[in-house]
Specification:
The protein has 148 residues and is mainly α. The chain has a domain of 74 residues. Helices cover 69% and strands 0% of the residues. It is built from 5 helices and no strands. Helix 1 crosses helix 2 and helix 3 packs antiparallel against helix 4.
Length: 148
Amino acid sequence: MATPGLRGGGDRVIGRLLRFIAFLPLIEVVVIVLVWQAIGPWWTLGLLVAGPLAGLALLRLSPVRTFGHVRAALSQGRLPDDAVWEGAALGFAGLLLLFPGFISDFLALGLLVGPARHALRRPPNPPPPAVRDPDREPLEGRFRSYRD
């Protein structure tokens, strides 16, 4: 049964995402063991503690930064959509850093790096700009509002 509102294989994408989320803890444990064997226990524990601390700091500072960017955009008369996206991406990166593990930290790093964050913000093929139809110009004149 197809999910309403999804077209073109959306069910497959959601299924893959759910499988990834279900198997993520198991994959994280395997990666932690591999890192433990590669660099040693103390460095691994240090990295596993540093990630959530960085995520906590990011979650504390991200709203302040976002609020400043939203205020600046609004004072210049622009919509703050870029600032809101940046804040959401940084907040989600902070949440990913809170989870112990290296895969979630790697995903968070992808959201923290500027070009990767901008690539996620912009669609690869933006829709073409709308063309104004000269036959459908807006009406001008007076109007009266009648309320019930």
